[in-house]
Amino acid sequence: MRIGWTSRQGRARLSNNDAAAFGRKDHHVLAMLVDAAEKGDGQGLARHWSRTVIDVALREAHQLSLAGLVGIMRAEQQRLREQYLHAIASYCCVLVDLQQQLLHVAHVGDCLVGTHRPAEAINWLSRPHNLQEQAIWQAGASGVEESRHLLTRSLNARRFHSPYCLTTDLPTDARLLLCSDGYWHEHLQSGTDLQRVNDDSSVLSLGYGEPIIELQSDCDNFWDCNEERC
To answer: What CA–CA distance (Å, rounded) separates 43 from 64?
Structure first.
């Protein structure tokens, strides 16, 4: 598949706390984007979670499945208290079955997954898990900006929040987009230039075609888990 990773530190952030990882096994492709808050070594959590979940799945799963991925996440979440007790993050993870052209999604927090076909609007497959979930999607809603970071589901060391899961077809002419909220909300929805967004803004795109990885990031926050052992 053709992979693209674009990531920018927000102007209101001290560091870029987004991260992503990618891997392939047989006819399956795995990818994850993580968007962490700055507190409690959020940057470390984002990088650890994306790399660890993908790497463990590639190494240990006899047959990749959505249920198996959630099981790995549940087990790895129990280990977070050792280093990331006070950190919190959102993530979205996709498993693509290239043979059957099926897309499996697991999502927690306010990162979103969508499919984008040429000359069409993005078809968002998930909704943000926050207190203004409905209002965010309504033009001109009041109070959205102040509460869009208040998550109702999150990745944290204290409690495992089961991800929202779905399975759908992935057309061969569609790109798959995994977006942090800085990207889909500030950049796409509000129309802010990527160089001027306040929040970290990242998008991981996957599409059928020549196997190549294109990186445009201001830091080292993307890993191909087939190339370098995570």
So the answer is: 27
